[in-house]
Amino acid sequence: MITVGITGGIGSGKSTVCNVWAKKGAYVLNADDLAKQVMVTNAEVKQQLVDHFGSESFLDDGELNTKHLAKEAFEKGRVKELNAIVHPKLPAAASQKIEEAEAQGYDIFVYEAALLLENLEPGSLDYIVLVLADEDHRIKRVKQRDNSSEVEIRGRIEKQRNFEKATDRADYVIRNNGTLEELEKKAEIIYQNFLN
Ligand code: ATP
User: Fold this and answer.
1) Which residues pair with 58 in a beta bridge?
2) pTM recorded for the entire structure
3) Is residue 153 domain-resident?
4) Most CB atoms within 10 A, among 62, 176, 182, 188?
């Protein structure tokens, strides 16, 4: 099984590429989804979340109180604290998913993460794909997708690394400044390359 990491800034088009690959049969794991799973299943993480962010971190049925945690993390500037609890557990959780995907007979495993390059263990993935798009396109697209304001989106972009400077870390760079169809075509070509 081939393992692929895909990264890029907010609104660059990562999920769109992953959707194309998933349709072609890839197992796609999104880092945010994995983090949420870890937060409700890992006993140590759960305890730390309660210790740091209060018992309101979980709802009565044991589900994550995403509203509360998002407020604590983003509005109160405690993202780093939250990440410090959850991120160390992600490599092992991702490895388990890779094993599951392999056992289920998938040819390609894709890990989608904005913080991929920060948390990557050297040699742990076969290919790295970086998706880039100009800021004006990203702002317009995210505005439409999330109904968020330009100020909010610019704030999030500023907090991320400059992905344009990370091209040397990628095996494939996708530039997404054209149409959706063009992006999908690029995604298909790269997928084919993985398989060849
Ligand atoms: P995030 O990091 O915020 O999750 P992302 O990198 O996964 O973002 P997508 O969700 O794939 O980005 O794309 C952002 C939005 O822009 C989506 O609504 C998507 O449909 C749209 N989009 C992506 N590429 C194009 C394009 N080339 N033309 C028009 N719309 C696009």
Assistant:
1) 64
2) 0.93
3) yes
4) 176
